[in-house]
Amino acid sequence: MRRAGTLLAAALLGLSWPAAGALASPASENPQQNYILLCQGCHGPDGHGVAGRVPPLADTVGPLMHSAAGREFLMRVPGSANSALSDQQLAGVLNWLVARYAATSLPPEARPFTAADVSAARHRPLTSVTATRRAVTAELAAAGIVLANAY
Fold it and tell me: CA-CA distance, 82 to 101, in Å (whole number)?
């Protein structure tokens, strides 16, 4: 009864509920803010993660960018693939991570992530994050690139 009264009052005042997703998505167009809102809770403010539970970004983003499989891995891990961010917003966060954590360790052929890249990758989520990470790590090691943290 009380809810009906609230809805009636809102209707009489010309108020309307926001669209279903309007309150659910805290995403913005600022990549750093999106990292803070959606990634920092697990990866931490400095990207160091949680030992044995959440991989660090600070020591892994650069080496992963040396391989097409590593680059794709960044777009397909559950936190990326399942995030509330649009493809464009996720590309922005990934590019911000690269600039923050890998600017000095990027291969010369590295290119920024685009919304099209993200869209093509994230809709094919990883079936085994651990196995994929091991395969990418082995590929990088064979090329002489060793991740500082073999998480």
Answer: 22
Average pLDDT, the chain: 82
Residues paired with residue 50 on neighbouring β-strands, in sequence order: 54
Q: Which residues of 118-139 are buried (b: 16+ CB within 10 A; e: fewer)?
A: beebbeeebeeeeebbeebbee
104 within some domain: yes
pTM for this model (two decimals): 0.79
Q: How many angstroms separate the CA atoms of 72 and 23, rounded?
A: 30
Q: Is 54 helix (H, G, I), strand (E, B) or coil?
A: strand
Please count the structural domains in the chain: 1
Q: Count other C-beta atoms under 10 Å from residue 61's C-beta.
A: 23
Residue 10 lies in a domain: no
What is the per-residue pLDDT for 26? Answer: 55
The answer to whether residue 101 is domain-embedded is: yes
Segments forming the whole domain that contains residue 64: 29-142
In a domain, 88, yes or no: yes
Token pair of 99 as six digits: 């600039």
Helix axes 87-101, 68-76, angle to 10 degrees: 120
The tokens for 13 are 């005042």
- Integer Cα distance of 49 and 56 in angstroms: 4
38-54 pLDDT, tens digit per residue, is 999 999 999 998 888 88
